[in-house]
Each structure stands twice: as structure tokens, then as C-alpha cells.
Amino acid sequence: MVNQTVRSFAEKVEAAAWRNIPSTYIITEQDKAIPPALQEQMAAPQPRLPRPQPSRRKARYLA
After folding, report:
1. How far apart are CA 16 and CA 10, in angstroms?
2. How far apart (Å, rounded) are the C-alpha atoms in residues 49 and 23?
3. Which of 34, 54, 30, 52 is nearest to 42 (CA)?
4. What's the pLDDT at 63?
5. Is 29 a domain residue?
6. Which stretches does the entry tag as region Disordered (predicted)?
7. Is residue 22 part of a domain?
8. Domain-embedded: residue 39
9. With helix as H, strand as E and coil as C, how does the chain read?
10. From CA 36, how far away is CA 2, in angstroms rounded?
11. Which residue, 18, 28, 37, 60, has fewest beta-carbon neighbours within 10 Å?
């Protein structure tokens, strides 16, 4: 990812890139800000792929 310019937020969008460029939406099961059901709605325009079963293990973070 790269920094976004202020201009990029003000310019008129002429086409939705996700319609032509392959993209991925990762649904996070333990997101504290966006519940998985809302993430599913946000990902709805994407072609549907099988959703893996949630892991029962806790994520480990490396420092």
C-alpha cells in the first residue's frame, strides 16, 4: 500500500476498478471494529469464493 494524495479523494471516479481488476477481500473473524456480517456485505460485489471455516486457534503475533 502507498500513501494517498488529498487530490485522490477529490477527483471524480469514472469507473470502479474492482469490476475489471481482480481483487480480494479478507473477512476477519475477530475484527473489533467491523463485525464479520458487515464485512460480508462490503465484500458482496466480489465474486463469491468458498469461505474457510473459522479457526479455533488464537492468532499469535510476533514482535
Report:
1. 15
2. 12
3. 34
4. 43
5. yes
6. 36-63
7. yes
8. yes
9. CCCCCHHHHHCCCCCCHHHCCCCCCCCCCCCCCCCHHHHHHHHCCCCCCCCCCCCCCCCCCCC
10. 26
11. 60
Question: Would 57 be classed as within a structural domain?
Answer: no
Which cell numbers in the block locate residue 32? 473489533
Q: What is the structure's pLDDT at 9?
A: 86
* Cβ atoms 49, 23 nearer than 8 A: no
Structural domain count of the chain:
1
Q: Which three cell numbers stand for residue 61?
A: 503475533
- Vertex 34: Cα angle to 45 and 50 (nearest 5): 45
Task: Supply the range of the domain harboring residue 26.
Answer: 6-43
For the record, the C-alpha cell of 41 comes out as 456485505
